[in-house]
Amino acid sequence: MAYPPAGRARTTGTLYLVAGVLLLIALAFRSPELYAAWQSGTLTTARAGMSLIFLVGALYMLRMGWRLRRNNTQNDVID
Question: Got the DSSP string for the chain?
Fold first, then answer.
């Protein structure tokens, strides 16, 4: 897989980092609501699953953004 041009890697990395942090903040704001739904027994599997998918996506965005910002020489961001 080819690298993006040198000037865009840091910008793209920053965008991924910002998006990952914002998604984690949004999930943190939703966690009390999810906990209350779990306590009352109204939490559905789909809702819990989507929250976990968003959490994994946020962590992947942070990882990818960090790797792009560091100008890694090994191309293992996606591979």
Answer: -PPPPHHHHHHHHHHHHHHHHHHHHHHHHHHHHHHHHHHHT---HHHHHHHHHHHHHHHHHHHHHHHHHTT-SS--S--
